[in-house]
Amino acid sequence: MALWITDECINCDVCEPLCPNEAISMGAEIYEIDAARCTECVGHFDEPQCASLCPVSCIPVNPSHVETQAQLLEKYRRLHPAGATSHGGGADAAASREAASSAPVSSAQAAG
Fold first, then answer.
1. What is the rounded CA–CA span in Å between residue 7 and residue 30?
2. What gap in Å lies between CA 63 and CA 65, rounded to an integer?
3. 104-112 — which CB contacts under 8 Å span 24+ positions?
4. Are 7 and 30 a contacting pair, CB within 8 Å?
5. pTM above the 0.85 mark?
6. Which residues contact 80 (CB under 8 A, 6 or more apart)?
7. Does residue 95 have a pLDDT over 70?
8. pLDDT tens-digit profile of 12-59?
9. Residues 39 and 91: beta-carbon distance below 8 Å
10. Burial annotation 57-80 (CB, 10 A radius, 16+ → b, else e)
11. Using CA atoms, how far apart are residues 48 and 100, in angstroms rounded to an integer?
């Protein structure tokens, strides 16, 4: 599912720089989300950054663009074939962080 920005948008400029897929741009009056580029941050973050930080909560799921998690991940892979992003994310990076977080911590690491 792609997200969309409703006419309740106040053009605060919070969402656009947060989008790792560059799916958000200024439209004629308010910001708009390109459904072809929106992955709801799948492959980058655990939740859509634009929606989670929007001060007026005007970024719901777009019912006209319903996609499964698998479809969103495939879109992410198509948009980012190397699997890495400028945001330090990516599916491979997320898997590495998960593995690192489950690794045992030495006493030196715990103290540091």
1. 7
2. 5
3. none
4. yes
5. no
6. 43, 90
7. no
8. 999 999 999 999 999 999 999 999 999 999 999 999 999 999 999 999
9. no
10. ebbeebeeeebeeeebeebbbebb
11. 23
